[in-house]
Specification:
By secondary structure, the chain is α+β, with helices and mostly antiparallel strands. The chain has 17 helices and 26 strands.
Length: 557
Amino acid sequence: MPSRRTPRSRAVLAAVAAAATLFLVAACSTGGGSTSEPTGEPVTGGTLTYASGDAEPSCLDPHVGGNYPQALIATQYLESLVSLNEDGEVIPWLATEWQESDDGMAWEFTLREDVTFTDGTPFDAEAVAANIAHVQDPATASSTGYLALAKVEDVVVVDDHTVRLELSAPDSALLESLSQVWVAMESPKALERSQDENCAAPVGTGPFVVDEWERQDSVTLVRNEDYNSPPADVPVDAEGTGLPYLDSIVWRFIPDSASRYAALQSGEVQVIDNAQPDTIQSAESDEAIEELDAPRPGAANRIELNSSKAPFDDERVREAFIRSVNVDDGIEGLFFGTAERSYSPLSSVEPLGLSLPELFTVDTDAAASLLDEAGWAERDAEGYRVKDGERLTLDFPVSTNQSIPAEQSLFEQIQADAKTAGFEIKLHPLDLSSWYGALAENDYDLVSAPYTKVGPDVLRILYHSASIEPAPSGYFANLAQVDDPAVDDLLTRASTTSNPDDRESLYEQAQRIILEGYYILPLYDQQNHFLYSSTVQGLRAMPTVSTPTFAEAWLTP
């Protein structure tokens, strides 16, 4: 019984400026779906053009770093061991069945025997072992995948199509983690190449194959003629599935939102992401354009308050800030009904999310009293609070790659509200590399950092004190720097119990401490609005990541 031990050492903080370009703060989703039923019979052939407003990945291999732009495109050519249906239930994909040991310390997976990577390498137990080793290797500089597999200690190849994952502790979120594209299966032969080679053209089992990458412009994907890994609801016959229907996809990068929408209207492209609120509203009256709304799972969009240093090491100051800003009016005025205010650490698609709106009502009198109590009783000539001669100043680095214009305008409104209460907020618009650098240097008081991981275990990633330590990529997820033994205990116990009632109770208690401690200011669900031409049929969002999949899509003549 051969055994392959995967690396478990935690890397020293990598050079963040170099790693920053590798990933946007991660992301995955449950509950996607087409907005309308396909019409007519599928049509084979044609090229679909997709226009993305997200930053172009520096690596097409989502094991490296682990960001949402990577997930968007990698969904088309990589597949995972398991997936989720639209009810959030785990379903087979490259693994047909699985069994947890009685003590929760191991999971055994039976693998499909009829799947081959597009370079001809068999998909088998050795391939699974190679992929987990690749994600956990510090040299890969993984963030999202690394954290998802943190408890996998050994990978045992039982036989060609049976693999056992042995854990350092029970992991109630393991199946959810394995559904994510950041731990999807890649050809072990391809993984033996240099990282640059693998970044340029990862090799998977998915419906499409990376054909060409013209940097700063587009990636061309072509049909996998031997595709044999259909969705669970697509019957397989002796001749295969006939999927995908499209001949190719041209994946373009168009940062400007107006240019993306104009290209969609003209028919130059068929699908766009990062649709802006005013664009979505405008598209409602256009019968030639449809919308796919697929909010991401995991965490809500939120502002993290850095509790590791002054002034937010004082809970009174954190509460005063949150009580002084009117987020509701900002969302209503800027998002045109496309976003709904959140009062929870978790996305609305997560059933275990705890919402406490009463904690986030605007109360300027209470905010003033709290600041007085905390010693910020005086104001300077410009109206800002001061203490011991120091102004109450908050540094807020903003990633222009991750915050859409409406969100940046919301931050400006928050800045104006906070000024009335005596807070000086300095907004620092930064490119992605500089933004990561500011976080690595602990040079922030406020930050908005999207993070997507299926299921409530995202709370452990974001708020357990262990997540203040950087992953091999250099990124640390606990940006609020919550360091509370009670939270650690609750999240650790939740991650090791399979009892659903116990998990719910533990996650609720942890969320209550986070919310009542005013460590975060929830805003709204992480937005995933896609607009597409009515000529596109069969488009849906993968329930695991809320990214569109084109495996079953076709173009009408």
